[in-house]
Design goal:
about 55% helix; 5 helices; 2 strands; alpha+beta
C-alpha cells in the first residue's frame, strides 16, 4: 500500500531550523508543528501546510513523499 509521508523533520534538520523557530515563523502552535515533525497526524490541515510552505519558501514536493508500506 502506498502512503503519503511528511518529510518535515528531514527538511528542518537539513536547514538547521528548529520546530520552535518554525512555530514562531508560522504562528502555528508548537504542539502541531511537533506532531508534523514526528509525522504523527492522521489528517493534514491545508491551512497549516500552506503557512509552513510559505514560511519555508518551498514546494509541496519538498515536504511530502510517497512510500510503500506493508498492509497492517
Amino acid at each position: 500500500m502506498k502512503r503519503l509521508r511528511l518529510k518535515l523533520a528531514q527538511y528542518l534538520d537539513e536547514r538547521k531550523i528548529s520546530r520552535y523557530a518554525l512555530a514562531k515563523m508560522t504562528g502555528i502552535q508548537y504542539q502541531i508543528i511537533d506532531g508534523y515533525y514526528k509525522n504523527k497526524p492522521l489528517r493534514y490541515d491545508v491551512y497549516n501546510l500552506s503557512k509552513i510552505i510559505t514560511a519555508l519558501n518551498c514546494g509541496v514536493e519538498d515536504l511530502f513523499e510517497i512510500v510503500e508500506e506493508d498492509d497492517p
